[in-house]
Amino acid sequence: MATLTTMDAGLVPAAELAARETMRFPGESKEYRRARTALLAEEIELRRHIERVAELRRQLPPGGEVTRDYRFEGEDGPASFADLFGDKQTLVAYSYMFGPQRETPCPMCTSLLSAWDGEAEDVGQRVSLVVIARSPIERLKAFKAKRGWRHLRLYSDVSGDYSRDYHGMTNDGGDDAAFAVFTRRDGCIRHFWSGEMGFESADPGQDPRGAPDLMPIWTILDSTPEGRAADWYPKLEYGRDD
Question: How far apart are CA 207 and CA 212, in angstroms?
Answer without folding.
Answer: 14
